[in-house]
Design brief:
single chain, alpha/beta, Rossmann fold, six-stranded mixed β-sheet
């Protein structure tokens, strides 16, 4: 049964939560949305390929999450001809330099896959895994922006 698949790699849970938000949004376009961790996700076979695959992972120390890489390597043949959208959870600091650095890091990760031509690539703000001196974690995730992006990759806004 065609549908959409959201695959993610998450270390501390923030990317998993964002992948869940994306899946919820995509379900407004198509009720058949699968949410899966990248380390174990497989596109079943070519006859049951999804209509869209969204792949996301956090950026840690300049590298995209290994589960996102693992998914791409294991599913290259099955992803041929399937629209793929990509996202990364990036900066903890809301500065132009931080946003640019995160995008460069994601672009460098995607350059390893010359066969991959994403229909959309996005970097969203991340969550600092450490609690600051104020007792609060820095969280630059913007759920509304994430949902707008998900609507766009699904074929247009419903909101």
């Amino acid at each position: 049964m065609p549908g959409m698949t959201v695959v993610f790699g998450s270390k501390n849970g923030s990317t998993a939560e964002v992948a869940g938000w994306i899946a919820e949004c995509l379900r407004e376009h198509d009720p058949h949305v699968e949410l899966a961790q990248g380390r174990s996700a497989l596109v079943k076979d070519r006859s049951a390929r999804p209509d869209l695959v969204v792949i996301g992972g956090a950026l840690y120390a300049g590298r995209w999450h290994r589960d996102a890489h693992r998914f791409l390597r294991r599913n290259r043949a099955e992803l041929t001809g399937v629209p793929v959208a990509v996202f990364a959870m990036g900066p903890w600091a809301d500065t132009e330099e931080s946003w640019q650095r995160s995008r460069v890091q994601l672009d460098r990760a995607l350059a390893r896959y010359d066969w991959l031509k994403p229909v959309s690539v996005a970097v969203f703000g991340g969550v600092d895994p450490k609690v600051g001196s104020s007792g609060v974690r820095r969280d630059l995730r913007d759920r509304a922006a994430i949902e707008r992006w998900a609507d766009e990759v699904a074929g247009g806004p419903l909101r």
